[in-house]
From TrEMBL:
Subcellular location as annotated: Nucleus
GO BP term, pick one: regulation of DNA-templated transcription
IBH1-like N-terminal domain boundaries: 9-58
GO cellular component: nucleus
Species annotation: Cocos nucifera
This protein's UniProt keywords: Nucleus, Transcription, Transcription regulation
Listed InterPro entries: bHLH_AtIBH1-like (IPR044549), IBH1-like (IPR044660), IBH1_N (IPR059002)
Protein name: Transcription factor PAR1
Source taxonomy: Eukaryota, Viridiplantae, Streptophyta, Embryophyta, Tracheophyta
Length: 151
């Protein structure tokens, strides 16, 4: 199964430039490949399976097999009642809904699991940014070397 995901990621990148419909299409393919790499880097996490499922649905496959934990805005508010004032409960529920939208599959998670998945997702995003910076630096150096060599 893992090889199938990797093959799809590579096939998105390897498609020849002449068969692409231009710059935007290549950009879309790079974005999908980067997101698939992100999803594959943290196998076993709910957000990773949800992201991979979303990407595979775009390509034509799908189903992550995750169970929903049923965190609804009203459930969040019920969980927080008694801990803080009404305005604070409403504000906390609003912030949790926003967090649920940011983390792939976050709508399906209970509050404690949402925080765990968020922390792991942020770490994975940081790793992805570091890799992309390294690639950009490498490509920049190769381009500079190519110009110096007269290419």
């Amino acid at each position: 199964m893992e090889d199938q995901g990797n093959n799809k990621t590579l096939s998105l990148i390897k498609t020849s430039t002449s068969s692409n419909s231009g710059f935007l299409e290549r950009g879309r393919r790079i974005k999908v490949a980067a997101e698939m790499g992100l999803a594959e880097s943290s196998r076993g996490r709910h957000w990773s399976r949800a992201l991979r499922d979303r990407l595979l649905r775009r390509i034509g496959n799908g189903a992550c097999g995750c169970q929903k934990e049923g965190l609804t805005p009203s459930k969040v508010a019920e969980d927080l009642v008694g801990e803080e004032g009404d305005d604070e409960v409403i504000e906390m529920a609003r912030k949790l809904r926003a967090l649920q939208k940011l983390v792939p599959g976050g709508e399906d998670l209970a509050m404690d699991r949402l925080f765990e998945e968020t922390a792991d997702y942020v770490e994975a995003l940081q790793r992805q940014v570091n890799v992309m910076r390294a690639l950009a630096s490498l490509l920049g150096m190769l381009e500079k070397e190519k110009r110096l060599m007269g290419g």
